[in-house]
Design goal:
This protein is mostly helical. It has one domain. It contains four helices and no strands. The chain has helices at 3-23, 33-41, 58-61, 68-108. It is elongated. The two termini are 32 Å apart.
Length: 110
C-alpha cells in the first residue's frame, strides 16, 4: 500500500471517529416508531426488554457512566470502530478471493 493510500485511509478513519463522537450527540431522545405507536395505542406497558438490553452499550451506552454525553460518545465511537473493522474484513476477504481467482486462472490458461 503506497503512502497516499495510507494517508487517505488514516484521514478517513479520523473523520469517521470525529463524526461518530460529535454526531452521536444529536441522536433523538424521542422513542422510535414502534415505541411511539405502542404509546399511542396504549400497549407500551406490555413491552419487555430485549435479552441483550442490559449490556453496557445498549440504548446508546445508557448506564455506562453517570455522564449521558460521554455514554453516547463512547457508544458512537465503538459502533463506528466495529463497523470499520467489519468493513475492512469484508474487503480483505474479497481482495484475497479475487487474487486467488486470478492466480487460478493464470495457471489454467494455455
Amino acid at each position: 500500500m503506497d503512502r497516499r493510500t495510507r494517508v487517505f485511509l488514516a484521514v478517513g478513519f479520523l473523520v469517521a471517529i470525529v463524526f461518530a463522537v460529535v454526531v452521536s450527540q444529536f441522536a433523538s431522545d424521542s422513542p422510535d416508531g414502534l415505541e411511539y405507536v405502542a404509546e399511542q395505542e396504549g400497549f407500551i406497558n406490555t413491552a419487555q426488554d430485549h435479552a441483550l438490553g442490559n449490556l453496557p452499550l445498549a440504548d446508546y451506552g445508557e448506564g455506562l457512566t453517570d455522564n449521558g454525553t460521554l455514554n453516547t460518545a463512547v457508544a458512537g465511537l465503538l459502533g463506528t470502530v466495529v463497523t470499520l473493522i467489519a468493513g475492512y474484513g469484508v474487503f480483505w476477504v474479497a481482495r484475497r478471493t479475487r487474487a486467488g481467482d486470478e492466480a487460478a486462472q493464470a495457471t489454467h490458461e494455455p
